[in-house]
């Protein structure tokens, strides 16, 4: 297939409608095409909305029925919200990079408090190219943790480890990074340590190689 035609497969790949052979070929194309990799990530919100629409549509509705104004408004609203959020994250990351430049080369960290009392931290490691965001909520039994990771170096198995202020370590959750998948993946887990007992988090490979460190302060 010619390169131009391969670029046109971005939407079909993001929506999961390519057959296995075409998907494999497109993933090979992603290795050398930064533009398509970025577009696959951009299609994420629209793909999720279409999946929600499919699940919410009664079986009595004809499969070729067109989307109504409400769905279109939701799609446009989410895309606009994502763009605004992306701009805010970029500004926060730039500010954090300036403030924390003395922390060491190749690392950008962002910390904030969630509106629901949760503590949220994010970081990008330029050496590994991995970005991660961890949200921690205090519970009676410890901490409820949600981690979102962007890692295009799969396939590989990774873990999120909570490191206590006393030096103890707890594995929060484990996952497998898909092959050549630049989309963010979200996982949930928990730790017996409470948020004020956690010094930092680390995303590591299965063999213990650190990919990104996220401080809690």
UniProtKB/TrEMBL annotation:
<keyword id="KW-0472">Membrane</keyword>
<keyword id="KW-1133">Transmembrane helix</keyword>
<protein>
    <submittedName>
        <fullName>Zf-HC2 domain-containing protein</fullName>
    </submittedName>
</protein>
<dbReference type="Pfam" id="PF13490">
    <property type="entry name" value="zf-HC2"/>
</dbReference>
<dbReference type="InterPro" id="IPR041916">
    <property type="entry name" value="Anti_sigma_zinc_sf"/>
</dbReference>
<dbReference type="InterPro" id="IPR027383">
    <property type="entry name" value="Znf_put"/>
</dbReference>
<keyword id="KW-0805">Transcription regulation</keyword>
<keyword id="KW-0804">Transcription</keyword>
<feature type="domain" description="Putative zinc-finger">
    <location>
        <begin position="9"/>
        <end position="36"/>
    </location>
</feature>
<feature type="transmembrane region" description="Helical">
    <location>
        <begin position="91"/>
        <end position="111"/>
    </location>
</feature>
<keyword id="KW-0812">Transmembrane</keyword>
């Amino acid at each position: 297939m010619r390169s131009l035609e391969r670029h046109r497969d971005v939407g079909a790949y993001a929506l999961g409608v390519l057959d296995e052979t075409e998907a494999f070929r497109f993933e090979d194309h992603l290795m050398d095409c930064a533009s398509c990799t970025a577009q696959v990530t951009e299609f994420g919100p629209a793909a999720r909305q279409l999946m929600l629409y499919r699940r919410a549509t009664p079986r009595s509705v004809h499969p070729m029925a067109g989307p109504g104004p409400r769905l279109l408004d939701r799609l446009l609203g989410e895309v606009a919200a994502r763009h605004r959020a992306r701009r805010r994250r970029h500004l926060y990351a730039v500010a954090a990079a300036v403030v924390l430049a003395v922390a060491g080369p190749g690392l950008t960290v962002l910390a904030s408090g969630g509106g629901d009392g949760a503590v949220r931290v994010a970081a990008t490691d330029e050496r590994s190219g991995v970005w991660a965001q961890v949200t921690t909520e205090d519970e009676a039994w410890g901490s409820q943790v949600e981690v979102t990771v962007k890692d295009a170096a799969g396939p590989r198995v990774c873990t999120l480890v909570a490191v206590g202020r006393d030096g103890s370590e707890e594995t929060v959750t484990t996952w497998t990074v898909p092959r050549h998948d630049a989309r963010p993946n979200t996982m949930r887990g928990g730790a017996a340590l409470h948020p004020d007992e956690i010094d930092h988090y680390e995303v590591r490979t299965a063999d213990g190689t650190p990919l990104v460190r996220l401080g809690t302060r």
